[in-house]
Amino acid sequence: MGCKQVIIYPAIDLKDGQVVRLLQGNMEEATVFGHDPVKVAADFLKQGTKYLHLVDLNGAVEGKPVNDQAIRNILTQVPLEIQIGGGIRTLERIEELLELGVSRVILGTVAVRKPELVAEAVRRYGERIIVGIDAREGMVAVQGWSEKTNIKAEELGLAMKEVGVSRIIFTDIARDGMMAGPNIKSTVQMAQATGLKVIASGGISCLEDLIRLKAEADRGLGIEGVIVGKALYSGAFTLGQALEAMNN
User: In 12, 14, 19, 207, which residue has its Cα 20 to 30 A from 34's Cα atom?
Assistant: First the structure.
């Protein structure tokens, strides 16, 4: 099918203004990797990325913005294309973030609780709206992953496609932060079942994981990007090495 570009999104997860990584989304299992989110973002830029995946973890759990100062600092000081998620539950908040200069807004919990809000957001902002589908054992979890639903991940993907969403971030929660490798099988199934563009998330542990995802994208499946967090912070590989692996 020929080579497809797969975008690497280095991740900054914000908790109480600091850069952290969680294990399987557990807020009590936070490891602090940096006290200055701007410095971390600037370092990613220096290593060659154009993109950043930003999450307000407190916001995701509390359902309202918490880390706005850190978010604004990154947006004003580091020229990256930023997609952001975590606690975004209203059209006003979506508009505020887009006006601040965010490239794309990620909706998670509201995709389950208020699909009509997602539909309206897509109508207004098109591809600048993406949906995060986070699954535990194939079932969707919401509210910062603290609540499991009885909705199958693929069902939610199809429902979002119905309202005009074209791109999702798919996370296997069991793999997130565990450095155990991504759930490539589930990610591929999601892409095939829905026909959506999929950004893979959770569990990237080595360059080989990225190369395997790239191979699936090259087969013509809709895997468009991959989010990398803990592997970068723990030194498994550098962002520069990841970018090189994806471009070869």
Answer: 207
**Nearest to residue 46, comparing CAs of 234, 239, 229?**
239
pLDDT value for 180 = 78
Rounded CA gap, 153 and 138, in Å? Answer: 6
- Enzyme catalytic residues: 13, 134
Structure tokens at 168: 């999702």
* Sole residue written with tokens 């468009």: 224
What's the pLDDT tens digit per position in 177-187? Answer: 676 789 999 99
Which amino acid is it at 131? Answer: V
What's the start-to-end Cα distance of the chain, in Å? Answer: 15
Domain boundaries, the chain: 7-247
Mean pLDDT in residue range 71-96? 96
CATH architecture assigned to 7-247:
Alpha-Beta Barrel (3.20)
Name the band, by pLDDT with cuts 50, 70 and 90, for residue 248. low
For 41-80, b/e burial (b = at least 16 CB within 10 A) is bbbbbeeebebbbbbbbbbbbebebbbbebbebbbeebeb
Select from 82, 10, 6 the least CA-distant residue to 43: 10
Picking from 12, 8, 132, 21, the residue whose alpha carbon sits closest to that of residue 74 is 12
CA 6 to chain centroid: 14
Torsion of CA 178, 64, 134, 111, to 10 degrees: -170
Give the residue from 156, 128, 129 showing the smallest Cα distance to 141: 156
Amino acid identity, residue 111? A
Q: How many CB atoms lie within 10 A of CB 131?
A: 29
